[in-house]
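Q: For a teaching session next week I want to show students how multiple molecules come together into a single three-dimensional assembly. I've collected the sequence lines for a complex. Could you give me the predicted structure tokens for the whole thing so I can convert them for display?
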Amino acid sequence: NELTFIMIKPDGVQRGLVGDIISRFEKKGFFLKAMKMVQVERSFAEKHYSDLSTKPFFGALVEYIISGPVVAMVWQGKGVVATGRKIIGATNPAQSEPGTIRGDFCIEVSRNVIHGSDAVGSAQKEIALWFPDGIVDWHSSAHPWIYEN
Ligand code: GTP
Ligand code: MG
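A: Of course. Below is the structure for the complete assembly, covering every listed component.
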């Protein structure tokens, strides 16, 4: 029942990568539990990345996140937080392996296409921030084809 928060950043939306990114999570066997496209305000972006507020790149990061609409999602599955981060790849695309989203689609750390929660606790906080009205309660009929139990 683990959940993670995934956000396709403005560059991923502008470059038409939404479908491919969703497809990777879907094909893996994770279930999409919430999704919306939003243009967030500065104060909201600052809240989302509040842990990084002392970093020298914080201002540039916030400008980047508010530079266009983003696609916010909640994905569910066993180990989805850690596996989601593996699917996304290393923060700096220079270190992201080919086959990962960042490894395949981008070059610069400041244009790295996608966000994924870094721990179960931060996923819970981010899901509450982005989806305050809750997520969709549905059960995939593919479940027994993906999970033994
Ligand atoms: P997120 O999934 O977006 O949280 O990335 P991450 O967990 O892999 O990395 P981290 O939380 O440390 O940094 C958040 C985001 O800040 C990164 O994804 C980058 O978009 C941006 N960022 C990180 N380091 C730099 C940097 O040195 N310069 C700039 N401009 N942006 C950076
Ligand atoms: Mg992070």
